User: What shape does this take?
Amino acid sequence: MPDGRDKRKPQTRAGPRHVAIIMDGNGRWAQARGRPRLFGHHAGARRVREIVTACPDLGVKYLTIFAFSTENWRRTQTEVAGLMNLFRRYIVKEMQEFVKNDVRVRFIGDRVRLDAKLRALMDETEAVTAHCSGTNLTVAVNYGGRDEVARATRRLAQDVAAGRLKPENVDEETLPRYLDTCVLPDPDLVIRTSGEARISNFLLWQSAYAEYEFIDTLWPDFTSEIFTDLIQGYGTRERRYGAVPA
Ligand code: FPP
Assistant: This one.
């Protein structure tokens, strides 16, 4: 074998470069302990740091996490305010840690509805970590896949109307350039915790060929060991993108 590999052995391929996570189950985790839902969100925030820290050793270069969806505004005012407060405090607390760990942070989603203080912190985090070249952490806040595609289409239509883009030149490569994720590769693996097998409007366009892992663990119980197992399991799966195996 020219490259020294034995083809009779099952071949494992490289692990996922981009992992996206729907962090679900904070509320149930708290309720099971007789505590308010925000207690679960705080526990969930602590897991975020553990999972981000695990990425370099696992070869995960891009991690995208779903922190708040366009539908989450329907929660009680107490929970929404508590989550926004948690995001602000989390950013302030973690900003220097991100720089120290070479983590480049980006935010996706529609920022217009977010309060000015949070928006300013998001801008500052992106600027302060812009030079970091280790893990790329993308946090989805007020994010919805359909909303993202609608906003992208609006901008694309504006370019057509202004004569900057010809309708006949619009193809599969065009729309992604207008998405919030335009600088990111598509996710290879999407994980959802808490036993729900839904994608809930997360990265709809980008996940067309992603692998999915739906696991029962609630997000506050999602350890780096569980994360490692899922990443290693991915290496044994075959992705065919619609083709017949060679
Ligand atoms: C879903 O659990 C979780 C959320 C809507 C919020 C996710 C937020 C965090 C993990 C905390 C902080 C994140 C960052 C980036 C600091 P759920 O409330 O829907 O749980 P349930 O399905 O059990 O009710």
In short: Strands lie at 18-22, 62-69, 104-108, 136-143, 189-192, 211-214.
